[in-house]
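ok, trying the design again with the full structure, not the truncated one.
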């Protein structure tokens, strides 16, 4: 029987690459919120739905939700992409607020991590070209 952990996935724990990897910057684009599954440094602060785990909602999250409701433009979040999942480097509260309010996409700067052992020998799992 496996134990269900009620926190966002942790980037450092979930990387399952062996050896070096390549970074590919995809620049600015729209990312589906349901593909954002974890955090680079704050996974314990958010649950698996990216709601803040504290019983007291931080003022910062409340202010971000209000800004989204008012249509204010917010800076893009910064994400790592590994396979088909995204991890928040910067913008955890913006992701949490957006997921809680219903948008399906968020503006993000994306850097993809590709294990070098997946870029070789005619059976490329990934393309090493910038999209």
């Amino acid at each position: 029987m496996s134990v269900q952990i009620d926190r966002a996935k942790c980037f450092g724990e979930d990387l399952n690459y062996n050896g070096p990897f390549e970074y590919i910057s995809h620049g600015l684009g729209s990312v589906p919120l349901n593909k954002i599954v974890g955090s680079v440094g704050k996974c314990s602060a958010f649950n698996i739905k990216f709601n803040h785990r504290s019983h007291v909602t931080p003022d910062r999250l409340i202010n971000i939700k209000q800004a989204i409701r008012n249509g204010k433009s917010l800076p893009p979040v910064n994400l790592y992409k590994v396979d088909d999942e995204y991890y928040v480097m910067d913008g955890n509260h913006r992701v949490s607020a957006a997921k809680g309010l219903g948008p399906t996409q968020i503006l993000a700067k994306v850097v993809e991590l590709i294990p070098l052992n997946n870029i070789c020998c005619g059976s490329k799992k990934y393309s090493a070209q910038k999209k």
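Keeping the full-length input from now on. Confidence is low (pLDDT under 50) at residues 122-131.
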